Amino acid sequence: MAAQIWSLANAESKHAAAPRSFFIPPREHRESLTVGSTVKLLFEFSARRVDGVLRDGERMWVEVVDVQPDGSYGGRLVNHPHVLTELGYGEPVRFSASHVIAIEYSVAELGYDPNAPAAVDARIVADDHPPNYLVRAQPPGANQELWFAGIDHEPPEQQRMITLAALTDRWPELTVVFSSSGGYWERVPEQPSYRPATPPIDG
């Protein structure tokens, strides 16, 4: 029997080493997966060159097919590997909560579209600064509302578009904001939470 040439990265260890750049779902979500859940795992292997780039890992989606009494999971690969071509679609994969780097949530589960864009002050991304203020509004000329996020009440010098999922990966507490009906929200001082607020009066 041929030796397995890949292993699964420990997502918790990678998150602990780089908590503001390697994001993973909350532990309670990773430990409560059910049959049919789809998760992303990081497959690691000896470095190989693919398309001119040296690669030693590939992130791929796996569907949960069974949950064991010890809390581990059985799954099947639902990606066609681009780098780790020794694996194929449908390949069985056993893993635990510690290996999960992402969970595919439905819009119904979240209460919002994680791929929807938000317009944010560029410093939020560049400086890893949590938004202090958020408002859902309809830009001039647009046909739908959009979340805007800022650090202060002044118009940002630079604005950047980012998905809601990218923001909640960094600050999970924003979930309550995006799943709301909209309005104006502010970050609670010295706490990782947000609350509805009254927008400032111009002038």
Could you explain how this protein is built, in words?
The chain has 203 residues and is of the alpha+beta class. It folds into 2 domains: 99 residues, SH3 type barrels; 89 residues, no CATH class. Strands 1, 2, 3, 4, 5 and 6 form a 6-stranded antiparallel β-sheet that branches. It has a 6-stranded mixed β-sheet with strand order 10-7-9-8-11-12. A hairpin with a 5-residue loop joins strand 3 and strand 4. The N and C termini lie far apart (75 Å).
Terminal Cα span: 75 Å
Low-confidence stretches: none
**What's the level 1 CATH class of the largest domain?**
Mainly Beta
Strand/helix succession = EHHEEEEEHEHEEEHHEE
Count of alpha/pi helices: 6
Strand content: 25-35%
Total domain units: 2
The main β sheet shows up as: 6 strands, antiparallel
Radius of gyration: 20 Å
On the 0-100 scale, what is the average pLDDT?
A: 92
CATH topology of the largest domain: SH3 type barrels
CATH architecture of the largest domain: Roll
